[in-house]
Amino acid sequence: LSEMRMPTTGASLDEIPVIEVNRENMDRLWPHLILSIRKADLIAIDLELSGLGERAAINAASLEDRYAAMRKAATTRSVLSLGIALFERRETKKEKRVGYKCQVFNVLSLCSEPFMMEPDALRFLADHSFDFNRYVRQGVPYHAAHQSTKSCPLRSLLDELLSPRAPIALHNGLVDLVFLYTHFYTTPPPTLSQFIADLADLFPTGEEQDDEVAPVVDSKFIAEFQERMPASYLEYVFRKSQRDNFLEAKEGRVHVKMSFGGSVMEIVPSSSLERVACALPEGFSDHAVDARRAAERLCAQFANHGFCRTGAACSKAHDVDLALDVEKIKSEKMRRRRKRRLDAQAGLERSEDREDGGSMTSSGDREESTDDPQLKQERQPFSVTGSHRAGVDAFMTGFAVLFHSRMALLKDGTLPVTITNRIPLSGKDRPLHLVPSRLVECSAAHSDRVMLVRAARKKADAAHARV
Question: What is the pTM of this model?
Answer without folding.
Answer: 0.87
